[in-house]
Known about the structure:
Layout: E1 5-7, H1 8-15, H2 19-28, E2 34-36, E3 39-43, H3 44-50, H4 56-59, H5 70-94
Antiparallel strand pairs: 1-3, 2-3
Helix pairs in contact: 1-2
Amino acid sequence: MDKLTLSVVEVSATLGLSRTKTYDLVRSGRLPSVRIGRRILVPRQAILEFLGAPPKESFQGGANQVVSPDLRLRWERIIDGLILFLSSLRKELAD
């Protein structure tokens, strides 16, 4: 099962932003997050919405649906690919 949330460090690497900029986005509320203890986690859906994908409700149909249902799948594949790439890169750098 894919992770539902990413750490701020994972988000910054995935989006190609600095950690400082990512923390600024979280603090300002532009990138929604969840705090669990001392950890700050960013839901995957929040990343998709930050990148311009419509909220998840828009993908489920309705009279105001403007975007094709495949858009959500494409964004999820992009994020999944980036996560896999970064995971493999992290393992290579650790060796």
